[in-house]
Design goal:
Radius of gyration: 18 Å
CATH topology: Jelly Rolls
Oligomer: single chain
Structural class: mainly beta
Number of helices: 1
Shape: globular
Order of helices and strands: EEEEEEEEEEEEEEEEEEEH
Length: 225
């Protein structure tokens, strides 16, 4: 369970604003988002906003979600970016993101350091994955939602499965949720996203984000009398 304390915080909400962008498109140029009932074709650097629903069709995409999340989407994948909030503590930032995984296959990399913290949650048809600083794949195949952890840890929960302690999946471990039977099971680690285009260097990603923050703070200070 992820709990956020809002007392004495400067809160930056990206509702109805840019929360990320398209970094790369491979294959057919048929990916699109639905935003306020409007269909928008995706191109390189297209801005992603909260509540956008994304469809890859026959494309493979790489998405950069602020401040330091990279999402690689396989063909025939559908996601909804339901929540994205960044809280600014002046010297540090905390980001909270919720993505609804509807179908297909994704690989996600979440990067953190002493100045940038990220709590990422994936919701997927009866099961939730809570992540802090990791890399993993989620796929929906053969009636099961599969999780394969490459790096870090993922906490798995479901309102249909009652356990005394959280289900923790470690690196090089596989895990599945059976949608019909509403059951968990441990399984062999098996990455499936063979067309994954590769992530940008995570250190460079953090550097670019921090430079963006410095520029933003500089603009604010110049506006003060």
């Amino acid at each position: 369970m992820i709990v956020w304390m809002f007392s004495f915080l400067v809160l930056i909400s990206f509702a109805s604003a840019e929360i990320g962008k398209v970094s790369k498109i491979l294959g057919a140029s048929d990916a699109y988002i639905i935003r306020n009932s409007e269909k928008i074709k995706l191109t390189q650097d297209t801005k992603i906003e909260q509540d956008d629903e994304l469809y890859t069709q026959e494309s493979v995409l790489l998405i950069y979600l602020y401040p330091s999340i990279q999402i690689s989407l396989s063909k025939k994948t559908q996601l909804n970016f339901s929540e994205s909030v960044i809280k600014d503590f002046s010297k540090t930032e905390k980001a909270f993101s919720v993505i609804e995984f509807i179908k297909g296959m994704v690989r996600i990399q979440v990067t953190t350091d002493s100045e940038v913290g990220v709590d990422q949650k994936i919701q997927a048809n009866g099961v939730s994955f809570a992540i802090r600083g990791t890399e993993f794949e989620i796929s929906d195949l053969n009636g099961e939602i599969d999780l394969d952890v490459i790096e870090g840890q993922v906490e798995v929960s479901s309102p249909y499965v009652q356990t005394f302690v959280p289900e923790i999946v470690n690196p090089n471990e596989g895990f599945s949720f059976n949608k019909k039977e509403k059951k968990f099971r441990r399984r062999k680690f098996l990455m499936k996203f063979n067309s994954h285009p590769g992530f940008a260097d995570r250190r460079e990603l953090l550097k670019k984000w921090k430079k963006r923050k410095v520029k933003k703070l500089g603009r604010r200070s110049r506006k003060r009398p």
